Amino acid sequence: MRIGIVCYPTFGGSGVVATELGKGLAGKGHQVHFITYNQPHRLDFLNENVFFHEVRFQHYPLFEYPPYETALASKMVDVVKHEKLDLLHVHYAIPHASAAYMARQILASQGIHIPVITTLHGTDITLVGKDASYEPVVTFSINESDGVTAVSQDLAKETCDTFQITRHIEVIPNFIDLSRFKKQAKEHFKMAICPEGEKLLVHTSNFRKVKRIEDVIGMFSIVRKSLPSKLLLVGDGPERQKMENLCREYQMCEDVRFLGRLDAVEELLSVCDLFVMPSEKESFGLAALEAMACEVPVISSNTGGLPELIVQGECGMMSHVGDVEDMARNALFILEDRNLPRFKKAALARAQQFDIHQILPLYEGFYQITLEGLKASRSSS
Questions:
Q1: pLDDT of 129 higher than 60
Q2: What is the distance between the alpha carbons of residues 35 and 297, in angstroms, rounded to a whole number?
Q3: Which domains does the chain have, with CATH numbers?
Protein backbone atom coordinates (compact mmCIF):
# COMPACT_ATOMS: atom_id res chain seq x y z
CA MET A 1 0.00 0.00 0.00
CA ARG A 2 0.94 3.64 -0.45
CA ILE A 3 0.09 5.35 2.84
CA GLY A 4 0.11 9.03 3.75
CA ILE A 5 0.71 9.71 7.46
CA VAL A 6 -0.12 13.13 8.88
CA CYS A 7 1.13 13.89 12.39
CA TYR A 8 2.80 16.41 14.64
CA PRO A 9 6.60 16.10 14.34
CA THR A 10 7.18 16.74 18.05
CA PHE A 11 8.24 14.78 21.15
CA GLY A 12 4.59 14.14 22.09
CA GLY A 13 3.06 10.68 22.14
CA SER A 14 0.92 11.04 19.02
CA GLY A 15 3.90 12.06 16.89
CA VAL A 16 6.04 9.24 18.30
CA VAL A 17 3.36 6.61 17.66
CA ALA A 18 2.66 7.87 14.14
CA THR A 19 6.34 7.92 13.23
CA GLU A 20 7.08 4.48 14.66
CA LEU A 21 4.00 3.10 12.91
CA GLY A 22 5.19 4.52 9.60
CA LYS A 23 8.66 3.10 10.06
CA GLY A 24 7.19 -0.29 10.91
CA LEU A 25 4.93 -0.26 7.87
CA ALA A 26 7.86 0.72 5.65
CA GLY A 27 9.80 -2.20 7.06
CA LYS A 28 7.03 -4.52 5.87
CA GLY A 29 7.23 -3.15 2.32
CA HIS A 30 4.56 -0.45 2.36
CA GLN A 31 5.42 2.94 0.89
CA VAL A 32 4.95 5.57 3.60
CA HIS A 33 4.72 9.33 3.03
CA PHE A 34 4.95 11.60 6.09
CA ILE A 35 3.18 14.94 5.63
CA THR A 36 3.91 17.58 8.28
CA TYR A 37 5.69 20.90 8.86
CA ASN A 38 9.00 19.43 10.11
CA GLN A 39 10.75 16.10 9.89
CA PRO A 40 9.26 13.97 12.72
CA HIS A 41 11.48 13.63 15.76
CA ARG A 42 11.71 9.83 15.53
CA LEU A 43 12.18 9.75 11.75
CA ASP A 44 15.91 9.20 12.11
CA PHE A 45 16.69 6.40 9.71
CA LEU A 46 17.02 5.81 5.98
CA ASN A 47 14.59 3.50 4.20
CA GLU A 48 13.70 3.28 0.53
CA ASN A 49 10.00 3.16 1.45
CA VAL A 50 9.93 6.31 3.61
CA PHE A 51 9.30 9.81 2.23
CA PHE A 52 8.90 13.18 3.93
CA HIS A 53 6.81 16.02 2.49
CA GLU A 54 7.19 19.37 4.25
CA VAL A 55 4.12 21.57 4.65
CA ARG A 56 5.13 25.15 3.95
CA PHE A 57 3.04 28.21 4.49
CA GLN A 58 3.66 31.87 3.83
CA HIS A 59 3.54 34.63 6.41
CA TYR A 60 1.39 37.45 5.04
CA PRO A 61 0.72 40.70 6.95
CA LEU A 62 -3.00 39.99 6.53
CA PHE A 63 -2.76 36.85 8.69
CA GLU A 64 -2.07 37.23 12.39
CA TYR A 65 -1.75 33.43 12.44
CA PRO A 66 -0.69 31.58 9.26
CA PRO A 67 -3.51 29.30 7.98
CA TYR A 68 -1.71 25.99 8.58
CA GLU A 69 -4.81 23.87 8.09
CA THR A 70 -5.32 25.22 4.57
CA ALA A 71 -1.67 24.69 3.65
CA LEU A 72 -1.82 21.15 5.08
CA ALA A 73 -4.94 20.27 3.08
CA SER A 74 -3.33 21.56 -0.09
CA LYS A 75 -0.19 19.53 0.58
CA MET A 76 -2.26 16.39 1.16
CA VAL A 77 -3.99 16.93 -2.19
CA ASP A 78 -0.64 17.34 -3.90
CA VAL A 79 0.93 14.23 -2.33
CA VAL A 80 -2.13 12.02 -2.92
CA LYS A 81 -2.27 13.00 -6.60
CA HIS A 82 1.41 12.76 -7.45
CA GLU A 83 2.39 9.83 -5.24
CA LYS A 84 -0.84 7.91 -6.01
CA LEU A 85 -1.60 7.19 -2.35
CA ASP A 86 -4.11 4.53 -1.36
CA LEU A 87 -5.16 6.13 1.92
CA LEU A 88 -4.48 8.95 4.38
CA HIS A 89 -3.91 8.15 8.05
CA VAL A 90 -4.11 11.26 10.23
CA HIS A 91 -3.00 11.26 13.86
CA TYR A 92 -4.56 13.65 16.39
CA ALA A 93 -7.94 15.06 15.48
CA ILE A 94 -7.05 18.76 15.54
CA PRO A 95 -6.48 20.01 12.90
CA HIS A 96 -5.47 16.94 10.91
CA ALA A 97 -8.87 15.28 10.58
CA SER A 98 -10.61 18.44 9.38
CA ALA A 99 -7.77 19.22 6.96
CA ALA A 100 -7.99 15.67 5.63
CA TYR A 101 -11.75 16.07 5.08
CA MET A 102 -11.08 19.21 3.04
CA ALA A 103 -8.38 17.43 1.03
CA ARG A 104 -10.66 14.44 0.40
CA GLN A 105 -13.44 16.69 -0.92
CA ILE A 106 -11.06 18.53 -3.24
CA LEU A 107 -9.73 15.22 -4.58
CA ALA A 108 -13.25 13.84 -5.04
CA SER A 109 -14.11 16.85 -7.20
CA GLN A 110 -11.23 15.73 -9.44
CA GLY A 111 -12.39 12.12 -9.59
CA ILE A 112 -9.91 10.83 -7.01
CA HIS A 113 -11.42 8.92 -4.08
CA ILE A 114 -9.20 8.27 -1.08
CA PRO A 115 -10.21 7.04 2.37
CA VAL A 116 -9.23 8.94 5.51
CA ILE A 117 -8.46 7.15 8.77
CA THR A 118 -8.27 9.22 11.96
CA THR A 119 -6.46 8.00 15.07
CA LEU A 120 -7.39 9.63 18.38
CA HIS A 121 -4.57 9.87 20.88
CA GLY A 122 -5.88 11.60 23.99
CA THR A 123 -5.70 15.33 24.57
CA ASP A 124 -7.20 15.96 21.13
CA ILE A 125 -10.36 14.55 22.74
CA THR A 126 -10.01 14.88 26.51
CA LEU A 127 -8.72 18.47 26.55
CA VAL A 128 -8.65 20.43 23.30
CA GLY A 129 -11.63 18.76 21.68
CA LYS A 130 -13.94 19.63 24.58
CA ASP A 131 -13.37 23.33 23.99
CA ALA A 132 -16.61 24.78 22.64
CA SER A 133 -14.70 26.58 19.90
CA TYR A 134 -13.46 23.23 18.50
CA GLU A 135 -16.16 20.72 19.40
CA PRO A 136 -18.36 21.03 16.26
CA VAL A 137 -15.37 20.59 13.95
CA VAL A 138 -14.00 17.66 15.97
CA THR A 139 -17.36 15.89 15.96
CA PHE A 140 -17.88 16.45 12.24
CA SER A 141 -14.34 15.38 11.31
CA ILE A 142 -14.55 12.15 13.30
CA ASN A 143 -17.94 11.23 11.85
CA GLU A 144 -16.81 12.03 8.32
CA SER A 145 -13.66 9.91 8.56
CA ASP A 146 -13.82 6.61 6.70
CA GLY A 147 -12.28 4.85 9.69
CA VAL A 148 -11.54 5.87 13.27
CA THR A 149 -9.21 4.28 15.82
CA ALA A 150 -8.38 5.09 19.45
CA VAL A 151 -5.40 3.97 21.50
CA SER A 152 -7.45 2.62 24.43
CA GLN A 153 -10.94 1.49 25.34
CA ASP A 154 -11.14 4.35 27.82
CA LEU A 155 -10.41 6.94 25.13
CA ALA A 156 -12.95 5.40 22.76
CA LYS A 157 -15.60 5.50 25.49
CA GLU A 158 -14.81 9.09 26.47
CA THR A 159 -14.99 10.14 22.82
CA CYS A 160 -18.46 8.62 22.45
CA ASP A 161 -19.58 10.08 25.78
CA THR A 162 -18.32 13.56 24.92
CA PHE A 163 -19.25 13.91 21.26
CA GLN A 164 -22.20 12.87 19.13
CA ILE A 165 -20.30 10.08 17.38
CA THR A 166 -22.18 8.10 14.75
CA ARG A 167 -19.51 5.66 13.66
CA HIS A 168 -17.59 2.76 15.18
CA ILE A 169 -14.26 3.47 16.87
CA GLU A 170 -11.77 0.64 16.56
CA VAL A 171 -9.40 0.27 19.51
CA ILE A 172 -5.80 -0.42 18.49
CA PRO A 173 -3.39 0.03 21.40
CA ASN A 174 -0.05 1.77 21.31
CA PHE A 175 2.99 -0.39 20.78
CA ILE A 176 6.70 -0.70 21.50
CA ASP A 177 9.73 -1.47 19.36
CA LEU A 178 11.47 -4.05 21.49
CA SER A 179 14.56 -3.95 19.30
CA ARG A 180 15.14 -0.41 20.59
CA PHE A 181 13.52 -0.38 24.01
CA LYS A 182 15.29 -3.09 25.95
CA LYS A 183 17.54 -3.29 28.97
CA GLN A 184 21.10 -2.35 28.07
CA ALA A 185 24.36 -2.80 29.95
CA LYS A 186 24.82 0.70 31.40
CA GLU A 187 25.92 -0.18 34.91
CA HIS A 188 28.65 2.47 34.82
CA PHE A 189 25.94 5.12 34.51
CA LYS A 190 24.04 3.64 37.45
CA MET A 191 27.20 3.71 39.55
CA ALA A 192 27.77 7.37 38.71
CA ILE A 193 24.29 8.31 39.94
CA CYS A 194 23.92 5.79 42.76
CA PRO A 195 27.46 5.16 44.06
CA GLU A 196 26.17 3.66 47.32
CA GLY A 197 23.75 1.25 45.65
CA GLU A 198 20.69 3.47 46.07
CA LYS A 199 17.46 2.60 44.25
CA LEU A 200 16.80 4.75 41.19
CA LEU A 201 13.37 6.15 40.37
CA VAL A 202 12.53 7.97 37.14
CA HIS A 203 9.77 10.08 35.60
CA THR A 204 9.61 11.28 31.99
CA SER A 205 7.08 13.74 30.58
CA ASN A 206 6.50 17.11 28.94
CA PHE A 207 6.18 18.76 32.39
CA ARG A 208 2.56 19.85 32.00
CA LYS A 209 0.18 20.16 34.96
CA VAL A 210 -1.77 17.07 33.89
CA LYS A 211 1.36 14.98 34.59
CA ARG A 212 1.24 15.93 38.33
CA ILE A 213 5.01 16.00 38.75
CA GLU A 214 4.53 17.47 42.21
CA ASP A 215 3.15 14.04 43.17
CA VAL A 216 6.35 12.39 41.89
CA ILE A 217 8.39 14.68 44.12
CA GLY A 218 6.02 14.30 47.07
CA MET A 219 6.08 10.51 46.79
CA PHE A 220 9.86 10.47 46.50
CA SER A 221 10.22 12.62 49.60
CA ILE A 222 8.46 9.84 51.54
CA VAL A 223 10.37 6.98 49.88
CA ARG A 224 13.83 8.45 50.53
CA LYS A 225 13.13 8.64 54.27
CA SER A 226 12.83 4.84 54.39
CA LEU A 227 15.10 3.75 51.53
CA PRO A 228 18.31 5.25 50.12
CA SER A 229 17.23 6.36 46.65
CA LYS A 230 17.64 8.87 43.85
CA LEU A 231 15.15 10.43 41.43
CA LEU A 232 15.66 11.37 37.77
CA LEU A 233 13.23 13.78 36.09
CA VAL A 234 13.47 13.66 32.30
CA GLY A 235 11.83 16.19 29.99
CA ASP A 236 11.01 19.86 29.97
CA GLY A 237 7.99 22.11 29.95
CA PRO A 238 6.01 24.81 31.76
CA GLU A 239 6.11 23.13 35.20
CA ARG A 240 9.85 22.55 35.38
CA GLN A 241 10.87 25.69 37.28
CA LYS A 242 8.10 25.18 39.81
CA MET A 243 9.26 21.59 40.36
CA GLU A 244 12.86 22.69 40.83
CA ASN A 245 11.66 25.13 43.49
CA LEU A 246 9.67 22.36 45.14
CA CYS A 247 12.77 20.17 45.42
CA ARG A 248 14.54 23.04 47.14
CA GLU A 249 11.66 23.36 49.60
CA TYR A 250 11.96 19.64 50.40
CA GLN A 251 15.74 20.11 50.72
CA MET A 252 16.49 17.11 48.52
CA CYS A 253 18.20 18.65 45.49
CA GLU A 254 21.21 16.38 46.02
CA ASP A 255 19.00 13.34 45.40
CA VAL A 256 17.02 14.70 42.42
CA ARG A 257 18.39 15.37 38.96
CA PHE A 258 16.60 17.28 36.21
CA LEU A 259 18.00 15.94 32.94
CA GLY A 260 15.94 17.83 30.34
CA ARG A 261 15.00 16.17 27.08
CA LEU A 262 16.86 13.04 26.11
CA ASP A 263 16.82 11.26 22.75
CA ALA A 264 18.13 7.88 23.91
CA VAL A 265 15.81 7.57 26.91
CA GLU A 266 16.02 3.78 26.67
CA GLU A 267 19.65 3.94 27.83
CA LEU A 268 18.57 5.80 30.95
CA LEU A 269 15.62 3.50 31.62
CA SER A 270 17.98 0.53 31.50
CA VAL A 271 19.54 1.51 34.85
CA CYS A 272 16.33 2.50 36.66
CA ASP A 273 14.41 0.49 39.24
CA LEU A 274 11.00 2.16 39.17
CA PHE A 275 9.04 4.39 36.77
CA VAL A 276 6.56 6.88 38.23
CA MET A 277 3.49 8.15 36.33
CA PRO A 278 0.96 9.83 38.66
CA SER A 279 -0.88 11.62 35.84
CA GLU A 280 -4.31 13.15 36.24
CA LYS A 281 -5.17 11.70 32.82
CA GLU A 282 -3.43 9.30 30.43
CA SER A 283 -5.12 7.95 27.32
CA PHE A 284 -2.69 5.02 27.21
CA GLY A 285 0.65 5.56 28.99
CA LEU A 286 3.26 5.11 26.26
CA ALA A 287 6.13 6.28 28.48
CA ALA A 288 5.20 3.60 31.01
CA LEU A 289 5.24 0.96 28.27
CA GLU A 290 8.72 2.09 27.19
CA ALA A 291 9.89 1.73 30.79
CA MET A 292 8.42 -1.77 31.14
CA ALA A 293 10.16 -2.84 27.94
CA CYS A 294 13.41 -1.93 29.70
CA GLU A 295 12.39 -4.10 32.68
CA VAL A 296 11.28 -1.20 34.87
CA PRO A 297 8.05 -1.70 36.87
CA VAL A 298 5.60 1.18 37.18
CA ILE A 299 3.90 3.18 39.92
CA SER A 300 0.97 5.05 38.39
CA SER A 301 -2.45 6.54 38.92
CA ASN A 302 -5.43 4.41 37.94
CA THR A 303 -6.84 6.87 35.41
CA GLY A 304 -7.67 6.75 31.70
CA GLY A 305 -6.12 3.88 29.79
CA LEU A 306 -3.51 3.00 32.42
CA PRO A 307 -5.56 0.13 33.91
CA GLU A 308 -5.57 -1.41 30.43
CA LEU A 309 -1.77 -1.40 30.47
CA ILE A 310 -0.71 -1.95 34.08
CA VAL A 311 -1.55 -5.32 35.67
CA GLN A 312 -2.02 -4.45 39.33
CA GLY A 313 0.46 -6.21 41.59
CA GLU A 314 2.38 -7.81 38.72
CA CYS A 315 4.19 -5.31 36.47
CA GLY A 316 3.41 -2.34 38.72
CA MET A 317 0.89 -0.85 41.11
CA MET A 318 -1.78 1.83 40.69
CA SER A 319 -3.28 4.32 43.14
CA HIS A 320 -6.00 6.93 43.00
CA VAL A 321 -4.97 10.25 41.47
CA GLY A 322 -3.22 12.38 44.09
CA ASP A 323 -2.81 9.62 46.70
CA VAL A 324 0.88 10.23 47.27
CA GLU A 325 1.03 8.18 50.48
CA ASP A 326 -0.35 5.06 48.77
CA MET A 327 2.04 5.50 45.86
CA ALA A 328 4.94 5.72 48.28
CA ARG A 329 3.82 2.55 50.11
CA ASN A 330 3.53 0.73 46.78
CA ALA A 331 6.92 2.00 45.68
CA LEU A 332 8.60 0.78 48.84
CA PHE A 333 6.95 -2.62 48.42
CA ILE A 334 8.12 -3.03 44.82
CA LEU A 335 11.63 -1.79 45.63
CA GLU A 336 12.19 -4.42 48.33
CA ASP A 337 15.02 -6.70 47.23
CA ARG A 338 12.78 -9.75 47.56
CA ASN A 339 10.08 -8.23 45.29
CA LEU A 340 11.91 -6.16 42.67
CA PRO A 341 13.19 -9.03 40.47
CA ARG A 342 9.71 -10.51 39.89
CA PHE A 343 8.23 -7.09 39.15
CA LYS A 344 10.98 -6.41 36.62
CA LYS A 345 10.40 -9.78 34.94
CA ALA A 346 6.64 -9.21 34.80
CA ALA A 347 7.14 -5.69 33.38
CA LEU A 348 9.06 -7.07 30.42
CA ALA A 349 6.54 -9.86 29.87
CA ARG A 350 3.68 -7.34 29.80
CA ALA A 351 5.56 -5.06 27.38
CA GLN A 352 6.11 -7.97 25.01
CA GLN A 353 2.34 -8.19 24.53
CA PHE A 354 2.50 -4.73 22.90
CA ASP A 355 5.37 -5.53 20.55
CA ILE A 356 5.03 -3.55 17.32
CA HIS A 357 4.99 -6.82 15.38
CA GLN A 358 1.81 -7.75 17.25
CA ILE A 359 0.09 -4.41 16.59
CA LEU A 360 1.13 -3.70 12.98
CA PRO A 361 -1.17 -6.40 11.55
CA LEU A 362 -4.11 -4.77 13.35
CA TYR A 363 -3.50 -1.51 11.49
CA GLU A 364 -2.93 -3.32 8.19
CA GLY A 365 -6.18 -5.22 8.65
CA PHE A 366 -8.05 -2.02 9.47
CA TYR A 367 -6.59 -0.32 6.41
CA GLN A 368 -7.80 -3.19 4.23
CA ILE A 369 -11.30 -3.16 5.73
CA THR A 370 -11.54 0.61 5.21
CA LEU A 371 -10.39 0.36 1.59
CA GLU A 372 -12.89 -2.42 0.88
CA GLY A 373 -15.65 -0.39 2.53
CA LEU A 374 -14.91 2.58 0.29
CA LYS A 375 -14.99 0.39 -2.82
CA ALA A 376 -18.29 -1.19 -1.74
CA SER A 377 -19.94 2.17 -1.07
CA ARG A 378 -18.81 3.55 -4.42
CA SER A 379 -20.05 0.49 -6.34
CA SER A 380 -23.43 0.58 -4.60
CA SER A 381 -23.86 4.26 -5.40
A1: no
A2: 36
A3: 2-175+356-380 (3.40.50.2000), 187-352 (3.40.50.2000)
